[in-house]
Structure formats: structure tokens, C-alpha cells
Amino acid sequence: MLLSMCRLKWGAMAKTDDLFQELHAGLAELLREKLVEGTISVSEMGILRQFLKDNQITAVPVEGTPFGELVSSVPNLDKVVQMRRKVA
């Protein structure tokens, strides 16, 4: 009986893990689509920022890239963020 209870619990945990993986992937895809389409709202941008932060997704600005240009356009940000040079 104990073995069957453990199997039931393990099966439920596996299903929960699968569900969380589906939710994670679904949220990532939804936010990506909205960002690409240009329909993302300000509050959704906040959700996206937190989603990336929670998953330790970071970026380093590189000279000559769109992100590098964005960083360069913000006054005095170069004193806080170190930009890498683009490798040919």
C-alpha cells in the first residue's frame, strides 16, 4: 500500500512539473509574440522584465548592436554599464 501511495504521489508531482513547464513556456511564448508584434502593454513589459530577472536572463550591451545603441542613448549610463566592443 505504501508503495502504491508513493507512486501516486510521484505521478502527481510529475504531472505538476509538466504543468509548470507548460505554463513557463506558454508565458514566454505569449510575451515574445506580444513584444515582436508591438502589442505589449506597459504592465506586460513589467511582467516580462520580472520573468527575465526571475530566470537570471541578462544581457551585456555590445557596441554597434540595437541594445548597445539603446544604452548609448541614455545619458550617463556609460558610467554605470560597461559596453563591450563588437568583435568582427
Describe what you observe in this structure.
This protein is mainly α and 88 residues long. The chain is 65% helix and 0% strand. The chain contains three helices and no strands.
Characteristics of this structure?
88 residues, mainly alpha, 3 helices, elongated
The main pleated sheet reads as: none
Q: Would you tell me the structural class of the helices and strands?
A: mainly alpha
Query: How much strand?
Result: under 5%
Report the average pLDDT across residues. 82
- Give the helix level as a range of percent: 55-70%
Secondary structure layout plus pairing:
Elements lengths: L1 H36 L4 H13 L11 H8 L15
Give a short synopsis of this structure.
This protein is 65% helix and 0% strand. It has helices at residues 2-37, 42-54, 66-73.
